[in-house]
Amino acid sequence: MKEKLFKAEGLVLRTRVLGEADRLITLLTREEGKFEAVARGARRVKSKLAAGVDLFTHGRYTFHRGKTWPIITGQDTIERFNWFRENPDLYAYGLYFSELTDRLISGEEPCPEIFDHLLEAWSLFGEDVDRFLLSRSFELKLAHAAGYSPHLVSCINCGEHHVTAFSPRQGGMLCSRCRTADAINIDRGTLALIRRLVEAPLSQVGLLRPLSNQKKELATVSAGFLTYYLDLGEIKSRLFLKDS
Ligand SMILES: [Zn+2]
Protein backbone atom coordinates (compact mmCIF):
# COMPACT_ATOMS: atom_id res chain seq x y z
CA MET A 1 0.00 0.00 0.00
CA LYS A 2 1.23 3.47 -0.83
CA GLU A 3 2.23 5.83 2.01
CA LYS A 4 -0.39 8.37 3.02
CA LEU A 5 2.16 11.15 3.06
CA PHE A 6 4.68 11.71 0.31
CA LYS A 7 7.04 14.37 -1.01
CA ALA A 8 8.02 15.38 -4.51
CA GLU A 9 9.94 18.07 -6.36
CA GLY A 10 7.54 19.60 -8.86
CA LEU A 11 6.94 22.09 -11.65
CA VAL A 12 3.50 23.72 -11.86
CA LEU A 13 2.15 23.05 -15.38
CA ARG A 14 -1.42 24.11 -14.95
CA THR A 15 -3.74 25.58 -12.35
CA ARG A 16 -7.53 25.56 -12.26
CA VAL A 17 -10.21 26.92 -9.98
CA LEU A 18 -11.76 24.30 -7.71
CA GLY A 19 -14.78 24.98 -5.49
CA GLU A 20 -14.97 28.19 -3.45
CA ALA A 21 -11.36 28.82 -2.56
CA ASP A 22 -9.22 25.93 -3.76
CA ARG A 23 -7.05 25.29 -6.77
CA LEU A 24 -6.46 22.09 -8.70
CA ILE A 25 -2.81 22.04 -9.73
CA THR A 26 -1.19 19.91 -12.43
CA LEU A 27 2.35 19.14 -11.35
CA LEU A 28 5.17 17.48 -13.21
CA THR A 29 7.29 15.88 -10.51
CA ARG A 30 10.69 14.32 -10.73
CA GLU A 31 9.76 11.34 -8.53
CA GLU A 32 6.11 10.57 -9.30
CA GLY A 33 5.53 11.75 -12.86
CA LYS A 34 2.61 14.03 -13.63
CA PHE A 35 -0.51 14.27 -11.48
CA GLU A 36 -3.12 16.67 -10.18
CA ALA A 37 -3.24 17.85 -6.58
CA VAL A 38 -5.48 20.13 -4.56
CA ALA A 39 -4.14 23.34 -3.05
CA ARG A 40 -6.71 24.08 -0.36
CA GLY A 41 -7.55 27.73 0.22
CA ALA A 42 -5.04 28.84 -2.43
CA ARG A 43 -7.44 31.47 -3.79
CA ARG A 44 -7.82 33.22 -0.44
CA VAL A 45 -6.02 36.54 -0.18
CA LYS A 46 -4.01 35.51 2.86
CA SER A 47 -3.15 32.04 1.60
CA LYS A 48 0.44 31.06 2.27
CA LEU A 49 0.19 28.44 -0.43
CA ALA A 50 -1.02 30.71 -3.27
CA ALA A 51 2.37 31.84 -4.64
CA GLY A 52 3.84 28.36 -4.30
CA VAL A 53 1.25 26.82 -6.61
CA ASP A 54 1.35 29.52 -9.26
CA LEU A 55 2.14 28.55 -12.85
CA PHE A 56 5.87 28.28 -13.63
CA THR A 57 6.86 27.58 -10.02
CA HIS A 58 9.53 25.04 -9.13
CA GLY A 59 9.15 23.76 -5.60
CA ARG A 60 9.26 20.96 -3.09
CA TYR A 61 5.82 19.75 -2.12
CA THR A 62 4.40 17.51 0.57
CA PHE A 63 1.14 15.67 -0.10
CA HIS A 64 -1.46 13.71 1.74
CA ARG A 65 -3.20 11.11 -0.40
CA GLY A 66 -6.84 12.15 -0.62
CA LYS A 67 -9.76 10.15 -1.96
CA THR A 68 -9.76 11.77 -5.39
CA TRP A 69 -6.61 13.87 -5.54
CA PRO A 70 -3.55 14.24 -3.33
CA ILE A 71 -3.78 17.32 -1.12
CA ILE A 72 -0.82 19.66 -0.85
CA THR A 73 0.06 20.01 2.83
CA GLY A 74 3.39 21.82 2.55
CA GLN A 75 5.46 23.69 0.00
CA ASP A 76 8.91 25.27 -0.32
CA THR A 77 9.58 27.37 -3.39
CA ILE A 78 12.90 26.72 -5.13
CA GLU A 79 12.29 29.26 -7.90
CA ARG A 80 9.42 31.27 -9.33
CA PHE A 81 10.17 31.96 -12.97
CA ASN A 82 8.92 35.53 -12.89
CA TRP A 83 9.87 36.47 -16.45
CA PHE A 84 6.85 34.52 -17.68
CA ARG A 85 4.57 36.74 -15.60
CA GLU A 86 6.34 39.97 -16.52
CA ASN A 87 6.46 39.53 -20.30
CA PRO A 88 3.32 38.54 -22.28
CA ASP A 89 5.37 37.06 -25.15
CA LEU A 90 7.28 34.83 -22.75
CA TYR A 91 4.03 33.95 -21.00
CA ALA A 92 2.74 32.57 -24.31
CA TYR A 93 5.87 30.41 -24.65
CA GLY A 94 5.54 29.25 -21.06
CA LEU A 95 1.94 28.19 -21.66
CA TYR A 96 2.89 26.39 -24.85
CA PHE A 97 5.71 24.42 -23.19
CA SER A 98 3.39 23.48 -20.31
CA GLU A 99 0.53 22.44 -22.58
CA LEU A 100 2.84 20.35 -24.75
CA THR A 101 4.34 18.62 -21.71
CA ASP A 102 0.90 18.04 -20.20
CA ARG A 103 -0.41 16.50 -23.40
CA LEU A 104 2.59 14.34 -24.26
CA ILE A 105 2.99 12.78 -20.84
CA SER A 106 0.40 10.32 -19.64
CA GLY A 107 1.45 10.77 -16.05
CA GLU A 108 1.76 7.15 -15.03
CA GLU A 109 5.54 6.97 -15.01
CA PRO A 110 8.21 9.23 -13.55
CA CYS A 111 10.02 11.00 -16.39
CA PRO A 112 13.02 12.81 -14.87
CA GLU A 113 14.45 13.49 -18.33
CA ILE A 114 11.41 15.55 -19.32
CA PHE A 115 11.37 17.22 -15.90
CA ASP A 116 14.96 18.34 -16.47
CA HIS A 117 14.26 19.57 -20.02
CA LEU A 118 11.32 21.68 -18.86
CA LEU A 119 13.19 23.09 -15.90
CA GLU A 120 16.15 23.99 -18.12
CA ALA A 121 13.82 25.59 -20.69
CA TRP A 122 12.08 27.72 -18.02
CA SER A 123 15.46 28.90 -16.87
CA LEU A 124 16.75 29.64 -20.42
CA PHE A 125 13.77 31.88 -21.19
CA GLY A 126 15.29 34.32 -18.69
CA GLU A 127 18.27 34.73 -21.02
CA ASP A 128 18.56 36.16 -24.50
CA VAL A 129 17.74 32.84 -26.12
CA ASP A 130 16.58 32.03 -29.69
CA ARG A 131 12.95 31.22 -28.80
CA PHE A 132 12.21 29.59 -32.14
CA LEU A 133 15.09 27.10 -31.87
CA LEU A 134 14.52 26.53 -28.17
CA SER A 135 10.87 25.65 -28.90
CA ARG A 136 11.68 23.28 -31.75
CA SER A 137 14.43 21.62 -29.73
CA PHE A 138 12.10 21.21 -26.76
CA GLU A 139 9.39 19.65 -28.95
CA LEU A 140 11.86 17.15 -30.41
CA LYS A 141 13.40 16.29 -27.04
CA LEU A 142 10.02 15.83 -25.45
CA ALA A 143 8.89 13.52 -28.25
CA HIS A 144 12.19 11.61 -27.98
CA ALA A 145 11.90 11.22 -24.20
CA ALA A 146 8.30 10.05 -24.57
CA GLY A 147 9.51 7.43 -27.08
CA TYR A 148 8.27 9.04 -30.29
CA SER A 149 11.31 10.48 -32.07
CA PRO A 150 10.95 11.20 -35.77
CA HIS A 151 12.79 8.59 -37.84
CA LEU A 152 15.50 10.52 -39.69
CA VAL A 153 18.42 8.26 -40.56
CA SER A 154 16.86 6.18 -43.34
CA CYS A 155 13.61 5.67 -45.23
CA ILE A 156 10.96 4.69 -42.69
CA ASN A 157 9.35 2.42 -45.26
CA CYS A 158 12.23 0.52 -46.95
CA GLY A 159 15.40 1.45 -45.05
CA GLU A 160 17.09 3.20 -48.01
CA HIS A 161 19.71 5.69 -46.76
CA HIS A 162 19.23 8.29 -49.45
CA VAL A 163 16.18 10.13 -48.09
CA THR A 164 14.68 13.33 -49.47
CA ALA A 165 11.32 14.04 -47.86
CA PHE A 166 9.61 13.93 -44.48
CA SER A 167 6.16 12.45 -43.93
CA PRO A 168 4.37 14.06 -40.96
CA ARG A 169 1.80 11.26 -40.92
CA GLN A 170 4.37 8.46 -40.81
CA GLY A 171 6.72 10.38 -38.56
CA GLY A 172 9.86 9.90 -40.59
CA MET A 173 11.95 10.39 -43.71
CA LEU A 174 11.18 8.71 -47.04
CA CYS A 175 13.26 7.90 -50.11
CA SER A 176 12.09 9.07 -53.55
CA ARG A 177 10.51 5.69 -54.33
CA CYS A 178 8.41 5.49 -51.13
CA ARG A 179 7.43 9.16 -51.07
CA THR A 180 3.77 9.77 -50.14
CA ALA A 181 1.55 12.76 -50.95
CA ASP A 182 1.87 14.36 -47.50
CA ALA A 183 5.71 14.37 -47.61
CA ILE A 184 7.67 17.63 -47.55
CA ASN A 185 11.06 18.08 -49.23
CA ILE A 186 13.83 18.37 -46.69
CA ASP A 187 17.26 19.80 -47.30
CA ARG A 188 20.26 17.84 -45.92
CA GLY A 189 21.16 20.86 -43.79
CA THR A 190 17.71 20.81 -42.18
CA LEU A 191 18.09 17.12 -41.41
CA ALA A 192 21.43 17.80 -39.73
CA LEU A 193 19.84 20.69 -37.82
CA ILE A 194 17.01 18.46 -36.57
CA ARG A 195 19.52 15.86 -35.39
CA ARG A 196 21.46 18.56 -33.54
CA LEU A 197 18.29 19.82 -31.88
CA VAL A 198 17.48 16.33 -30.61
CA GLU A 199 21.02 15.64 -29.38
CA ALA A 200 22.48 18.94 -28.16
CA PRO A 201 21.60 20.31 -24.70
CA LEU A 202 18.92 23.02 -24.78
CA SER A 203 21.48 25.53 -23.52
CA GLN A 204 23.45 25.11 -26.77
CA VAL A 205 20.69 25.81 -29.29
CA GLY A 206 21.84 29.44 -29.39
CA LEU A 207 25.10 28.30 -31.03
CA LEU A 208 23.27 26.96 -34.09
CA ARG A 209 22.92 29.29 -37.07
CA PRO A 210 20.36 27.79 -39.46
CA LEU A 211 19.55 29.38 -42.81
CA SER A 212 16.06 30.80 -43.23
CA ASN A 213 14.91 27.97 -45.54
CA GLN A 214 16.10 25.44 -42.96
CA LYS A 215 14.13 27.22 -40.24
CA LYS A 216 11.04 27.14 -42.44
CA GLU A 217 11.42 23.43 -43.15
CA LEU A 218 12.09 22.74 -39.49
CA ALA A 219 8.88 24.56 -38.48
CA THR A 220 6.85 22.56 -41.01
CA VAL A 221 8.34 19.23 -39.94
CA SER A 222 7.85 19.96 -36.29
CA ALA A 223 4.24 21.19 -36.58
CA GLY A 224 3.32 18.29 -38.90
CA PHE A 225 4.93 15.70 -36.65
CA LEU A 226 3.15 16.96 -33.54
CA THR A 227 -0.22 17.31 -35.25
CA TYR A 228 -0.37 14.12 -37.28
CA TYR A 229 2.09 11.57 -35.96
CA LEU A 230 1.65 12.38 -32.27
CA ASP A 231 -2.02 13.15 -32.91
CA LEU A 232 -2.03 16.23 -30.71
CA GLY A 233 -4.34 18.08 -33.07
CA GLU A 234 -4.30 21.82 -32.64
CA ILE A 235 -2.25 22.98 -29.70
CA LYS A 236 -4.07 26.16 -28.75
CA SER A 237 -1.22 27.90 -26.97
CA ARG A 238 1.06 27.44 -30.03
CA LEU A 239 -1.13 29.92 -31.94
CA PHE A 240 -0.04 32.74 -29.66
CA LEU A 241 3.69 32.39 -30.24
CA LYS A 242 5.12 35.34 -32.10
CA ASP A 243 8.26 33.79 -33.51
CA SER A 244 7.06 30.45 -34.78
ZN1 LIG B 1 11.93 3.94 -49.21
Briefly say what this structure is.
With 244 residues, the protein is an alpha+beta fold. It is built from six helices and eight strands, in the order βββββααααβββαα.
Provide an overview of this structure.
By secondary structure, this protein is an alpha+beta fold. The chain has two domains: 76 residues, Nucleic acid-binding proteins (OB fold (Dihydrolipoamide Acetyltransferase, E2P), Beta Barrel), CATH 2.40.50.140; 157 residues, Recombination protein O, C-terminal domain (de novo design (two linked rop proteins)), CATH 1.20.1440. The chain is 32% helix and 23% strand. A hairpin with a 6-residue loop joins strand 4 and strand 5. Helix 2 runs parallel beside helix 4 and helix 4 runs parallel beside helix 6. The longest helix has 18 residues. The model has no long low-confidence stretch (mean pLDDT 90). The structure holds zinc ion (ZN). The site of zinc ion has 8 residues, from loops. Zinc ion (ZN) binds next to loops.
Instruction: Report Rg.
Output: 20 Å
Which word captures the global form?
elongated
CATH topology of the largest domain: de novo design (two linked rop proteins)
What percent of residues are in strands? 15-25%
- DSSP helical segment count: 6
Low-confidence stretches: none
CATH superfamily membership of the largest domain? Recombination protein O, C-terminal domain
Main traits of this protein?
de novo design (two linked rop proteins); 2 domains; single chain; 244 residues; 8 strands; five-stranded antiparallel β-sheet; OB fold (Dihydrolipoamide Acetyltransferase, E2P); alpha+beta; three-stranded antiparallel β-sheet; 6 helices; binds zinc ion
